Amino acid sequence: VGYDNIIASFREGEDIAHAFYDLIKSAIEKIQDEAKDTVVFLDTAADTFGGSENVRREANMFLKRYLGALCVQYDATIIVLAHPSVAGMSTGTGMSGSTAWNNGVRARFYLTKPTDGLDDERTLSKKKSNYSSAADDESLSLIWEDGVLKELGVAGTDTVARIEHKNCLTQALK
């Protein structure tokens, strides 16, 4: 917060790397060990992408030349958080901007708040995955607990108590 977090910007069809790109590379080099199990979260695309989200070439170049290069150079996984457009929310696709944002990545997930759930419940659904079956339509039910999203039904999340609480609320409202 308060810093220029742009990785790359675009002017007249040319891309320009920013200082934040080198900072990310330095940070990866400092923390990466021999296992190379590095995951980098970029929050959000709007804060790191200095182009027009609707220009396919700019979005694709950002994803491939900059983020893809980090993946290859450091054998790292890059996760970019992005907010959907109003249309993406209403259709349930979670899309925003050019289709290059969907086409230029290997996987895409969408985090939503169930309309019939508690305030701290979320659903993480897979919208795209190049490395799984097309029929493999999975989603995870999550709950916000102690500052972390945890999978519902996993030990330690007190799922039974939450479900009973939800059912009591439902019954009380009927």
Keywords:
174 residues; alpha/beta; four-stranded antiparallel sheet; three-stranded mixed sheet; 26% strand; disordered C terminus
Question: Which helices and strands appear, and what pairs or packs with what?
Answer:
Elements: E1 8-11, E2 14-17, H1 19-31, E3 39-43, H2 45-48, E4 49-50, H3 56-74, E5 77-81, H4 86-91, H5 100-103, E6 107-112, E7 121-129, E8 139-145, E9 148-151, H6 159-173
Parallel strand pairs: 1-4, 3-5
Antiparallel strand pairs: 1-2, 6-7, 7-8, 8-9
Describe this structure in words.
By secondary structure, the chain is of the alpha/beta class. Helices cover 35% and strands 26% of the residues. It has six helices and nine strands; from the N terminus they run ββαβαβαβααββββα. The protein has helices at 19-31, 45-48, 56-74, 86-91, 100-103, 159-173, and strands at residues 8-11, 14-17, 39-43, 49-50, 77-81, 107-112, 121-129, 139-145, 148-151. A four-stranded antiparallel beta sheet has the order 6-7-8-9, with no helix packed on it. A hairpin with a 2-residue loop joins β1 and β2. It is globular and about 45 Å long. 11% of the residues are buried.
Q: How many distinct helices?
A: 6
Provide the structure class. Answer: alpha/beta
H/E order of the elements?
A: EEHEHEHEHHEEEEH
**Could you report the average pLDDT, rounded to the nearest whole number?**
84
How helix-rich are the residues, as a percent range?
Answer: 25-40%
Outline type? globular
- The strand count comes to 9
List low-pLDDT spans.
157-174
Q: Main sheet?
A: 4 strands, antiparallel
Strand order, largest beta sheet: 6-7-8-9
**Alpha-carbon distance between the two ends:** 45 Å
